[in-house]
Amino acid sequence: MDRPVSIQETEKRSYRDCPVDIHSHTVWGADDGAGSPEEALELIRLDREEGIRVVFSTPHYGIENGYAPDRDTVRERFLQLSETVREKLPDMLLFPGTEWYCAEDIPERIRRREAFPLGSSDWYLVEFLEYGEVSEPAEVMLGRLRKLKDSKINTVLAHPERYKAIQEDPDLAKRICDLGVLLQVNAYDLFLNKKETTRNLAQWMAKEHLISFIGSDMHGLPPKRTPRMKEGIQWLYENVEKEYADDIVRRNAERYLGVEKMG
I need a labelling partner for 129 at 20 to 30 A (CA). Which of 98, 105, 172, 233 fits? Predict the structure, then answer.
């Protein structure tokens, strides 16, 4: 995709002042996220109120989870949204992306460029099925992530704190990291989530230094999931070392995903 909209000067601001949300569903009509350009813009405005200054738009992609939006349509709508944000929210920066379902043939899907990496990088955000009674076992997760590693595809795993297999065996998160996979936790889950198993796992992974990124995973206005970021970011700065919190909220996005460096 084309270069995203430009960001205002940030040299004198801290990483905590300019955090990055690498996971959002703000390309309207592409999946179960934003349903209109107006809703997409409002979600980004709400993310801004949460303190976010950089947003990756990552619609679902994978017929197994019900969504396989056309690449050209996603690109066109992302660029339209970028232009609107440039006019209405000029201190916000948008990047394109995809939340790929981690299917058995995901390396082939990525090679065919059926959807997008994270920004202009060579990193790919992936997810597994986890809803209701549907979940995927540890051996499936490890096998498919290992296949991505063997294919030399750089991988970020979305919201590992939500997966039953990792909740039942937290050390599975360490084995996933040992494959070179980076983990993205939903900021909401670090503090606000009332499900103790999810919240406790997210906090444990932070304290074990397993997290590389945060995201909102915002899907829409109520009753859908809205961006809730600031409490989770505050929790990080109160419970882990500042340098590591800086890595999670922005510095790793600079290192790996092409986000502009501060200072």
Answer: 233
